[in-house]
Task: structure prediction
Amino acid sequence: MSTDRYSSPLSERYASKEMQYIFSQDMKFTTWRKLWIALAETEMELGLSENGKPVITQEQIDEMKAHVDDINYDVAKEREKLVRHDVMSHVYAYGQLCPKAAGIIHLGATSCYVGDNTDIIVMNEALKLVHKKLVNVIDELAKFADTYKNQPTLAFTHFQPAQPTTVGKRATLWLQEFLMDLEDLEYVQSTLKLLGSKGTTGTQASFLELFNGDHETIDKIDPMIAKKMGFSDCYPVSGQTYSRKVDTRVANVLAGIAASAHKMSNDIRLLQHLKEVEEPFEKNQIGSSAMAYKRNPMRSERIASLSRYVMVDALNPAITSATQWFERTLDDSANKRLSIPEGFLAIDGILDLCLNVVDGLVVYPKVIEKHFMAEIPFMATENIMMDAVKNGGNRQELHEKIRTLSMEAGKMVKEEGKDNNLVDLIAADPSFGLTKEEIVENLKPELYVGRAPRQVEVFLRDVVNPVLEANKDVLGVRAEINV
Result:
């Protein structure tokens, strides 16, 4: 690590080695060379010839294949200083290693052949890693939801105590949003195509020249290149580049995941404030430099922080797509070099954090029960009133009494800071005809969670588990948090 210049925290602190490799120079330039091989092989297999002699030979192809990985960066760097063109610098550097093939490398292609096709290939590989980690987050959340499906807890609307739910049911709300993201990811990834080799304005004019106007042969070029590079197809039409709307769609998938992660992390942060749920806190972790007792939810805060970055970052490809001129302008290049890799590096860090947090999430049932019991007398008043009516009471009169006593108990809690004494007030009123023990029977938390446990069971069984079964080969990922 160099200490005398800026280094991205996405690389140094947040993103995994796997995601960093996908956007590395090695990945980029080895892919360029594989694309040059695919192009040369395709041209050879389609019988490209000059005066009856093959233009490309198997010997040249073999030479190119032998030097895919030994990238001579020093030669390319020196050449780029001279010609100010990164693609031609690497064509030259590759040619230095492959003297027999030097003359046919990049034949008929333009820079976007290697640049744009590589971008698609790299995004596809990055989406595979995001997919794997997202599935594992879903798996961990499913385990958590199942474990706590019966644990009653106060639900909140407007962050005010509302009709109860369960801890597991709340987790299914997070789960459902991540499942939506997984659907979006799989759809967008399934639509990715290569640019192919379309030429300077997308017309394949150079191939008309090379293949003497043979349209049927030229029609075979893109499908053959796509197959060699592991894709089913190429975009049927393009300018010099693939449509930058592709980048927009990919970035929107990342932003969707970030939004889901942000919402979950906010809920966890609020629950940690309530001391009901707590993210992992390591033995030697320091919560505050000044307040030694603090246990700050720093992982969840980091999820929120990085998620905001990814959501805003999605604007870059959208604006870039909207402002491209005709068949090609180069004002996309510098922006793409930043927005796409860093969006992926950030979402990679976010998903690692989500895995780490959910895997180690701690629940405190006693605290949850304490908060529950402080509010449940108010929520139980309908049941208490119905029991009193069964004992001969008048519903209208009892409703007014409960309203009055509830206000009295609320005043006791809010103005005097005392415990909720509504049960004692009702038990002391003879018009209800109920003992305290009879009233307390109505205060069991599980009576007020509705169908929450059943909803969790059905959701996991019918929705989540089929997804996990379909992706069982990628389960078991564990996240390592750098700092």
The chain has a mean pLDDT of 93. The first helix runs from residue 9 to 14. The first strand starts at residue 49 and ends at 50.
